[in-house]
Amino acid sequence: MQRARLPLLGLRAFEATARHLSVSKAASELCVTPGAVSQQVKLLEDTVGVPLLRRKGRSVELTDAGQVLRPALTQAFQTIELTLNAIARRPRHDTLKLCLLPTLAEKWLMPRLSRFHGAHPEVDIQIMTSFRTIQFEAEDVDMASFTGKDLPTGLEGVRLFDDEFLPVCNPALLQHYKRLAAPRDLARTTLLYSVRRMDDWQRWLALAGAADLRPQRSLSFENSSLAIQAAVDGLGVAVVQRAYVTDLLKAGILVAPFDLVARSENGYYLVWSAARAASPTFRSFLQWVLKEAGRNAA
């Protein structure tokens, strides 16, 4: 096959799927939908003329052809990655690269970022979003987000905010349902949530003494940002992290029908490798983040 006709998207999709033996994990790594991964793999199979994967429910297996192709692709992508990292590690001028959870980037960082740019107009920031764990020794990333009880071994970091969550909704929704005086009144509403935080409603309702509540209906979303937007649009009542909706609550765009806030032991961190912390640009951004984290806690 001629190099100009190589199906690069399909090769990436197949290599990630074959490595994880999971379409959903490959989609998470590549920051696309599982459907997009399956489509690219199918196009690759059509191009080479042989099946590469066997689908078995939610898992996949490699065909004989897939077993031949997978190690060659993995080695090739590793070579490309190492070469690009070596190039990217050359001195960069006033550029900071962040890889964050999508909702953290959209709902926590972005509303604040103008304050940093106002104080440091010379600094360029590149923001990527992903749910995967960043390997700092192999990737050209300065800072990344992390959620957990404690910092990962070998990394430094700052705790941005605690994992606190509560129900929120559009003010007009309260008028529609006339009253939401008690948590059990939520049974008449549509409950909104992120599929990545599927236990939040159960935990909040248990804390509110309504663990057996069954809602009229529910809607799930890929991430908390979509659940928040659905609440803003009046689709129902969302359970979301308080730090993501503080400004929306202050502006009256959303309201919290109940004062009860649930908490876990986890925190949301910004983490980095010590080797990344030497530049003045990094230190300036870190000082600003510390100030913003303190502002968020106040």
Characterization of this structure:
Strand 3 (95-100), helix 5 (102-119) and strand 4 (124-129) form a beta-alpha-beta unit. The mean pLDDT is 88. This protein has helices spanning 8-20, 23-30, 34-48, 64-88, 102-119, 171-176, 200-207, 224-232, 242-250, 280-297, and strands at 53-56, 59-62, 95-100, 124-129, 143-148, 156-168, 190-194, 217-221, 237-241, 262-272. The termini are far apart. Strands 4-3-5-10-6-9-7-8 form an eight-stranded mixed sheet. Helix content is 43%, strand content 22%. With 298 residues, the chain is α/β, with parallel strands linked by helices. It has three domains: 3-88, Winged helix-like DNA-binding domain superfamily/Winged helix DNA-binding domain (Arc Repressor Mutant, subunit A, Orthogonal Bundle), CATH 1.10.10.10; 95-156 and 266-297, Periplasmic binding protein-like II (D-Maltodextrin-Binding Protein, domain 2, 3-Layer(aba) Sandwich), CATH 3.40.190.10; 163-264, Periplasmic binding protein-like II (D-Maltodextrin-Binding Protein, domain 2, 3-Layer(aba) Sandwich). Pfam families: HTH_1, LysR_substrate. InterPro entries: LysR-type_TF_proteobact-type (IPR058163), LysR_HTH_N (IPR000847), LysR_subst-bd (IPR005119), WH-like_DNA-bd_sf (IPR036388), WH_DNA-bd_sf (IPR036390). This is Transcriptional regulator LysR family.
